[in-house]
């Protein structure tokens, strides 16, 4: 009798496993939502929408971008961490996944344990830009101006943990000078006030500044990459201007932890298709960035990047003593 019960249980468990595999093989059968934990119109949102269009075609189901801003990206990330792990709710986040564990004393999720990595997407350089009538005309003049005026200089950022806040922290540390920081609910609104002249400056991703620089709506001082960008050939690097500030903002795609490996594999392949798409490559180039290689658009590469970057930013944030509630 015991043998019969054991055999029946094994059959039932095997059937459940087979059922899960069958579901994964048929994935997706309905639209997939990609949560962007920042406001619409910002740099991460731009990356997500470029990928969503191509991934929709590849998956045969619409990939919908949903903006869930607030709390420096932790609100949207937390929503995905507790979502069903069926592959229909994903997270597209940036470097903030590696800074949140140190910035937030009571983070409601663990980036390393509560998510299944799918792959890296891109690494975006930053640009130092200001309102177009800001007095300094070169990076050297800008550095001198900030040192001389300190807290009279207003610096915008897209909220606690945002790339623009992190770049601002590094800038102020490099200059040993504090500016007056003004937080916004996203990079889009911050850029609007830079263009409008209400705020002096920001350091933000090229995906959110390149078009405004080209249109002459803001004044550009430097890019934070090692080399000049094809999209902005006249903008010098921070190194050229004598500023020791290099930072790139990487983006990654995640699913909730426990998602079927077969679904992760399907999403990984779809991500790689999108990153190899000529339109995506061209549009990324216009924005001053580029897709990662197929070898980097993998779960292992994203997991390794997250782990190493978490340790790197822990030291930076602890030294700055900047924390969120």
From TrEMBL:
Domain of life: Bacteria
Protein keywords: Signal
Family matches, as SUPFAM superfamilies: Periplasmic binding protein-like II
Span of the signal peptide: 1-24
Gene3D superfamilies listed in its UniProt record: Bordetella uptake gene, domain 1 (3.40.190.150), Periplasmic binding protein-like II (3.40.190.10)
InterPro entries named among the record's database cross-references: BUG (IPR005064), Bug_dom1 (IPR042100)
Pfam family, one: TctC
Family: Belongs to the UPF0065 (bug) family.
Protein name, entry field: Tripartite tricarboxylate transporter substrate binding protein BugD
Organism phylogeny: Bacteria, Pseudomonadati, Pseudomonadota, Alphaproteobacteria, Hyphomicrobiales
